Amino acid sequence: MADVRLVDIEKKYGNFLAVPQLNLTIEDGEFLVLLGPSGCGKTTTMRMIAGLEEITSGDIEIAGKRINDKPPKDRDIAMVFQNYGLYPHMTVRQNIDYPLKLRGVDRAARTRRVQETAEKVELEALLERRPSELSGGQRQRVALARAIVRTPSIFLMDEPLSNLDAKLRVTMRAELKHLHHELGVTTVYVTHDQMEAMTLASRIAIMREGRIVQLDTPKRIYSEPADLFVAGFIGSPSMNLIDGAIAGGVFTAPGVSFPVDQPDRDDVVLGIRPEDLEISTAPDAPVIGKLYALELTGESTLVTLRTGANSVCARGPADHEAEINAPCHFVPKPGARVHLFDRPSGHRLD
Ligand code: ATP
């Protein structure tokens, strides 16, 4: 068992409260992703778990034991951090081998293990080089290999794929997913990349200004965002968020009119994802405006219309063609989810 409990942990840098009173339990074997905008406290939280950052108050427990005062090397954690931390005087092979050597693994097993791991991260050809002779992405893969070469109680990974090109990133993502399936090691993972978060996580913690605003499965974060911040943060292109009011069971904004199951109120935001809208010619469509832009993405076309102050985007078929500024109508697809939020608080209403 290697669950991680953060109990009322707080981090102050001088007078600046970077993380206020955070409570979070990461279950044994879970893949928890911390996701949030730059500066929200993701790295600080990871560094506190690793023991690289002193906590101002609160407790950290691993497998039921308080470890506040344990040095990083005694926490049985393998980590990949943004600044790699490779040993410059060692070759790639020696860097990857080091955690095994430190734990007294015999030479034959080490050689085999280093080779297998180097293959996983596509570094076999570079084993005799030193870190200074590698690109940023290659160094990042050495750091990743050094972390996954053994099976620790916990993996901590802070943007481990951020310097890789798009193709390698997708390959490595699948490697990490497979590795987690094989080993079932409790993992805490920081990323800016929503796709990485959605595909890897068993649960995602969305952070904002040091606080967790939603902790949920990727599916629920996507389909039931707790507030406007999460709704706007997850999804690409992001959810359409339209300011308006509800009267007589209809949400209304300029060019927009949706039947909704909510009592009358002002200051409401209606949210609907681009993939939940389709292009229509119906004269009474709930969204009516003028075509503003067409963007072909390959598998689909992003269609943006303007109505009043609002832009609304729908994901249409790849072969969709239309004239800019022509009338444009959207209807919800069958089974589409319409979200409603209270504008002042940002909280979800439905
Ligand atoms: P990013 O995605 O940009 O890496 P993050 O979510 O990981 O951001 P942190 O690095 O945890 O954010 O930083 C959280 C807050 O604490 C930020 O406002 C940052 O400026 C501040 N901070 C981090 N380290 C220090 C430090 N050593 N001294 C003072 N403030 C710090």
UniProtKB/TrEMBL annotation:
InterPro entries given in the database record: AAA+_ATPase, ABC_transporter-like_ATP-bd, ABC_transporter-like_CS, ABC_transpr_MalK-like, ABC_transpr_MalK/UgpC-like, Mo/tungstate-bd_C_term_dom, NA-bd_OB-fold, OB_MalK-like
Domain ABC transporter, first and last residues per copy: 4-234
Coiled coil: none
Superkingdom of the source species: Bacteria
Record key words, sorted: ATP-binding, Cell membrane, Hydrolase, Membrane, Nucleotide-binding, Translocase, Transport
Signal peptide positions on this chain: none
Alphabetized GO MF terms: ABC-type transporter activity; ATP binding; ATP hydrolysis activity
Entry EC number(s): 3.6.3.20
Family classification: Belongs to the ABC transporter superfamily.
NCBIfam families hit by this protein: PRK11650.1
Record PANTHER family: MALTODEXTRIN IMPORT ATP-BINDING PROTEIN MSMX, TREHALOSE IMPORT ATP-BINDING PROTEIN SUGC
Protein name per the record: sn-glycerol-3-phosphate import ATP-binding protein UgpC
Organism: Jannaschia donghaensis
Gene symbol of the encoding locus: ugpC_4
